Amino acid sequence: MVGIVDRWTLYRDLRFAVNQSYLQASESGKLTEVARYLQANPSMKVGIDGSMNPRGTEQHNQGVIDQRVSAVRDALIHAGVPSAKISVGPFRDARFARDGQLAVLIRTDN
């Protein structure tokens, strides 16, 4: 059990192949772990950070980001996380974003 986490805090980074939106097989266990964590800590919610290192065109990057976020959101729901417990958006400073990664963050649901 955890106490109050009052701001978005990194829980796991998920890796993607360059310019791809499918989650690599080696990363799927992380989503199962996130789902289990949320089940054990019902006061928490999860955030999917869709920021990306600004390479390429903004339109291309946004398309890849949207597809990645959707893939992770769908996988979390499939793993048993209620959709109401999932938030999406850029939560961190884009300077810390890494190509090929998407951040899964946690915070107390208030």
Summarize the structure.
The chain has 110 residues and is α+β, with helices and mostly antiparallel strands.
Relative strand content: 15-25%
CATH architectural name: 2-Layer Sandwich
In terms of per-residue confidence, which ranges show pLDDT below 50 for 5 or more consecutive residues?
none
CATH homologous superfamily (4th level) name: OmpA-like domain
Explain what you see.
With 110 residues, this protein is of the alpha+beta class. The protein has a single domain, classed as 60s Ribosomal Protein L30, Chain: A, CATH 3.30.1330.60. Helices cover 31% and strands 23% of the residues. The protein contains two helices and four strands; from the N terminus they run βαβαββ. Strands 1-4-2-3 form a four-stranded mixed β-sheet, with helices on one face.
Question: What's the topology here?
Answer:
Elements: E1 9-15, H1 28-40, E2 44-49, H2 58-78, E3 86-89, E4 101-108
Parallel strand pairs: 2-3
Antiparallel strand pairs: 1-4, 2-4
Which key phrases capture this entry?
single chain; 110 residues; alpha+beta; 60s Ribosomal Protein L30, Chain: A; 4-stranded mixed sheet; 2 helices; 31% helix; globular
